[in-house]
Design goal:
CATH class of the largest domain: Alpha Beta
CATH topology of the largest domain: Rossmann fold
Bound molecules: S-adenosylmethionine
Structural class: alpha/beta
Order of helices and strands: HHHHEHEHEEHEHEE
Number of helices: 8
Shape: elongated
Largest sheet: 7 strands, mixed
CATH superfamily of the largest domain: Vaccinia Virus protein VP39
Number of strands: 7
Strand order of the largest sheet: 3-2-1-4-5-7-6
Radius of gyration: 34 Å
Number of domains: 2
Helix content: 25-40%
């Protein structure tokens, strides 16, 4: 090989190397560009899971939503519900008469708190009846179970309900009382709908509450009546004897 041939060969080799490095840079840029493009088209918080399908429950939730505030569920000392004068002031025996609570009845005390009303109802319905103490606060339910044992009340059942569902047995109750609880229920229309399916033929739902705006430990009676209608109930009676100050009221509903 002469000097000219060697020079040509070296130039070809150099050209080949140059071409290869240019191609590599192009390829790398193309791949990097693809990755960057992928990152840019997927939002930072995107989750690679499918959208939940729209269930009938979701539909129910959207139509039953309320446009008002509610009060945070009470979680303090239970002693405030045990004022010895409370039974007289509230006329609790008259409340039970209005709700048709008698020996053998099956009753629900929803938002039972200390079990103040649960115990009164359990004594009235006797061994042939049942009282469901429904709460979302498990500590209160433990307190009620202990109280029932200590008072030899074998007809008390505790139920850990949900905010929007009392989880009572289907067609299981003759009477229900929400005593100073309705304003705390987060999803009252949904709750009422579920409650309705647990009411026996002719069963009554009593709501005792105080006038308020929803987030101030009370709720206007007009709002309760409207929500109860949406939840499948109609107002059949209303009383003011539970506290003669025109602030507290007692509404009685029947399933429509
Ligand atoms: C203000 S206290 C009244 C207690 C009792 N009824 C009384 O007057 O003695 C309201 C109670 O309702 C309960 N509560 C709130 N929302 C509830 C719901 N959706 N279902 C069941 N209990 C509920 C709270 O945990 C609280 O113990």
């Amino acid at each position: 090989m002469n000097v000219r041939d060697r020079g040509n060969r070296e130039r070809r080799l150099l050209l080949h190397l140059l071409l290869r490095s240019v191609l590599s840079v192009h390829l790398a840029t193309a791949l990097l560009g693809c990755a960057v493009a992928n990152q840019q088209t997927r939002p930072a918080n995107s989750i690679a899971s499918p959208r939940p399908s729209v269930s009938s429950e979701t539909n129910e939730r959207s139509t039953d939503r309320i446009d008002r505030q509610t009060t945070n569920p009470y979680s303090g000392s239970l002693s405030i519900f045990e004022d010895p004068k409370r039974a007289d002031r509230l006329q609790v025996d008259r409340v039970m008469d209005v709700l048709g609570i008698k020996p053998g009845s099956s009753v629900a005390d929803v938002g039972a708190g200390s079990g103040w009303f649960t115990v009164k109802a359990a004594k009235r319905v006797g061994s042939g009846g049942l009282v469901y103490a429904v709460e979302i606060n498990i500590e209160y339910l433990k307190h009620i179970a202990k109280r029932a044992r200590e008072e030899n009340l074998s007809n008390v059942r505790t139920i850990l309900g949900k905010e929007d569902d009392p989880l009572l047995p289907e067609k299981g109750v003759d009477a229900v009382l929400l005593l100073k609880t309705y304003h705390e229920i987060g999803e009252p229309v949904r709750w009422l709908r579920r409650m309705r399916s647990s009411m026996r033929e002719g069963a009554l739902l009593g709501i005792i509450d105080r006038t308020g705006k929803g987030d101030d430990h009370g709720i206007d009676r007009e709002t309760v009546v409207k929500e109860a209608q949406r939840g499948g109930f109609m107002l059949v009676e209303q009383h003011d004897f539970v506290r003669p100050d025109e602030v507290d009221y007692f509404l009685v509903f029947r399933a429509r």
